[in-house]
Amino acid sequence: MTDNYLDIRIDDDVAVLTLNRPAKLNVLDVATRVLLARAIRDLGTGDLVRGIVLTGTGRAFSAGEDLQAVPSTYDEIREAVGTFHDITRAIIETKIPVIAAVNGIAVGGASEITLSCDGRIGSTAAEYFQPENHRGIIISNASSFLMGRLVRNHAMRVVLGSPRVGAEEALRIGLLDEIVAPETLIGRAVEVVRQWNSDPRITALHLGLLRPLPAEIEAAFAREDDAARQAWESGAFSAGIEGFWTSKNAASPASAQSNRDRSRS
Question: Which CDD domains match (predicted)?
Answer without folding.
Answer: crotonase-like
